[in-house]
Amino acid sequence: MKQGFVKVAAATPKVVVADVDHNVERIKELMDESVKRGVKITVFPELCITGYTCGELFLQKTLLDRAFLGLKELAEYTENLDGIFFVGLPVVCNHKLYNAAAAISRGEILGMVPKTNLPNYSEFYEARYFTSGEGVDFLIEDEISLSRELMFVAEGYENIRIAVEICEDLWVPNPPSIQHCLAGATIIANLSASDAITGKSAYRSELVKGQSARLNCGYIYASAGEGESTMDVVYSGENLIAENGNLLSKSEPFSTGLTVTELDVERMDTDRRRMNTYGSSDCEEYETVYFELEEDETRLTRYIDNAPFVPSDVSDRRSRCEEIFNIQAEGLKKRLQHTKAQSVVIGISGGLDSTLALLVAARAYDKLSMDRKDIIAVTMPGFGTTDRTYDNACRMVKHLGATLKEVSIKEAVMQHFKDIEHDENVHDVTYENCQARERTQILMDMANKYGGMVIGTGDMSELALGWATYNGDHMSMYGVNVSVPKTLVRHLVQYYADTCENRELQKVLLDVLDTPVSPELLPPKDGKIAQKTEDIVGPYELHDFVLYYLLRYGFCPSKIYRLAVVAFRGVYHRETILKWMKTFYRRFFAQQFKRSCLPDGPKVGSVAVSPRGDLRMPSDASSALWLKELEDL
Question: Using CA atoms, how far apart are residues 506 and 503, in angstroms rounded to an integer?
Fold first, then answer.
């Protein structure tokens, strides 16, 4: 359970209806397999000890007595097993019959949770046999609690807090899981017997994902499958495990066995602390039941995306790109309307960021039915400009119908070197930043001349690293890319290229995408770019990965490193990841002063670095704690 990860499973045994002996043996087999795979929390289907489809047999004392003995047998079987197991059975208490989920661990029956909402429509007839568990709080055999308000908590791991609802409980307007999570549950175990009908699988998945998202919890949904009666319906055994709206694992339909993954309870805790609208309720009505778990590291098998800002599904990625383009364009549109600007001025280099800014400006102008000729695109060749980027910049402006202006900065910068007594042969930070500031001066003055505003091109990844010249490319009147990470910038430009009808423009955009990321401030070598950003500050895909988990979830460096090792396996060595993580943290803290005075710009995703929004951080905060943790690794 190191760093909040706990391995969980949804288990579907192959049952025989009303054959308790057979079902108990199948459950034991899956318990053994679960423990071998390091699972700590295993959830079985609703009424799995007897089978869900027993019908009138639920009224037979023979079946009920044997089911309870079967539960005791399973509890005894767990004496030497590490973990907690939830199994379903019919339970008689106070002259009533309940559809219950029993929690068992270390040889004990820890408690039972009755089903609250009993479906009695269409193919379901549960109210014919069972009583609702609403308000029930009884003791079975004077020691086993039967109550909906039970919280199963792992000793020494207060974040692992499990509550239970059963099948239909999830499908109603006010599921018990809402109250469970407000009372502190981080994981919901759902023992289910949901039948298979056309269209239900997709809806069920959305239901589980949606509930885990609303409640910021892990959700383990185990469903009845093979062996249940098929007299009128079929049970598909579809198991689902979700976390905060993400479906982590799903079984194949009509299969049996285990569906295994890991839940991150620390992440849920972090999200709940961050969201001050996440409510809480009085926990006193809940009975806390503790259980033991052996300590281990929890080997990660869950998929960890190495590009968390970029949807992996192509269709989702395309719709996300369209949405982001519209957010950026609408933000600029409003600013243009408010300022009554007669033009926008953009420094265009032939690189990714300025390309995206120009594309956004074009869309904003289209939304306003304004002439794109009033977009003033300025190319400012300097000492590091290559023919490739220069040509791409000029061609792109032409094909977009904007106005191209060219101002060489070489003579002005050379004069500036003389003024400040800098040796032009010393290619240091002064040599570079003089060029960046000269370009910004040109853009600002041209904006005055043409009654316009300067549109910033820098992206969020550059701002996180401070890879911007203070009062140079750091400054603008409105920064359309300020919350777009570098890994996503590339996909936005690719999306525009894929969807634009102008084939010549498409060719230019594709060549821009194929060009190395560079500020082009050092003289070219053999006509090619000599200064590659990622050789200096490190791979942007690594930095974006760290940025996401640092700001979105507040994870500590050691946990982010662990995730990165899994996500970038086969791409970067551990030592490489650690090296660039140290670079990220050093620069992130040291460069906050640049972010503290950022121009306005639209937030497009769940992570942003605006000092007026997501990142209100002192410019002189120490990075010592974070760097020490990395050094200790």
Answer: 5
